[in-house]
Amino acid sequence: MNYKELITKLDKSNMPRHIAIIMDGNGRWAKKHKTKRINGHKEGVKAVRRIVETAVEAGAEYLTIYAFSTENWRRSKTEVSYLLKLIMDSLVKEIDELIKNNVNIRFIGSKEKLDESYNKRVMETCKKSWKNTGLHLNVAMNYGGRKELLDAFNSILADVCSGKLDTEITEKIVSDYLYTAGMPEVDLVIRTSGEERLSNFLIWQSAYAEFWFTQTLWPDFSREEFIQAMLDFQQRKRRFGER
Ligand code: IPE
Ligand code: IPE
Ligand code: MG
Predict the structure, then answer these.
(1) Is residue 150 classed as helix, strand or coil in its secondary structure?
(2) Strands (E), the chain
(3) Which residues of the chain fall short of a pLDDT of 70?
(4) N or C of the chain: less Cβ packing under 10 Å?
């Protein structure tokens, strides 16, 4: 069945409101094709384009994709600088198409370690899409769940010290200080390449998420598989602690 037919099978009243994807396996894809790792990342960008388009077609509300983690700085200097450049170049290249598709795009993650000019360019490019009312696309860039929580706690502390905040800390307050403030919690986490771990992705927001794993390497991830993940989600019985 092609993905368009699969989309018609989705129950619109039970959609995962927020889907998060750990796009893994670019390096192994490159190895399999006897080419350089960077070519795996390049191919990965094509998959991003395909999956974002499909998310729009399926009427998804929030999609967060893991592009670069706070741990990915541990890779070689060459790979890191290639990834930073690729992510920026892809954003700049795709922005007009994204705007046309009514996508509202933002980058979430820490600004530390990235040049000020880099952050400024990202912000100015994304800003052009902020009036859009369709898919909310978050690119997790220099993102780490623990870093996000630390940033939140430090901001809360600063606001308590300055008298701006005068209450005990609640779940709502923590959520409001995260990069994802105002967004729904994650319903579905997809990870490609056969790895079954969170790797510091959206640890607070995924507390009650459903997980969906596939052996497929990210550059090979298809529109059909993506919709299948949503269909499988709709078969799950979410209990939230109830009997
Ligand atoms: C995912 O692919 C992309 C990033 C982490 C940026 P990998 O580069 O982790 O690919 P593998 O895991 O080595 O195959
Ligand atoms: C997670 O993938 C980060 C991104 C997809 C950007 P990694 O490949 O870096 O994760 P680990 O190291 O296998 O846990
Ligand atoms: Mg990996």
Answers:
(1) helix
(2) 18-22, 62-69, 104-108, 136-143, 188-191, 210-213
(3) none
(4) C
72 in catalytic set: yes
pLDDT (0 to 100) of residue 238:
96
Residues for the chain: how many in total? 243
What pLDDT is recorded for position 243?
A: 87
Per-residue confidence (pLDDT) for residue 93, from 0 to 100 = 98
Q: Looking at the domain that runs over 13-144+185-233, which CATH code has it been given?
A: 3.40.1180.10
Mutate to test the pocket of ligand 2, among 21, 22, 31 (most ligand atoms within 8 A of CB): 22
Q: Which residues are near ligand 3, the ion (C-beta closer than 5 Å)?
A: 24
Pairing type for strands 188-191 and 210-213 reads parallel
- Paired with 68 in beta bridges are 141
What is the model's pLDDT at position 21? Answer: 99
220 C-beta closer than 6 A to ligand 2? no
Alpha-carbon span 219 to 19, nearest angstrom: 18
Domain ranges of the chain: 13-144+185-233
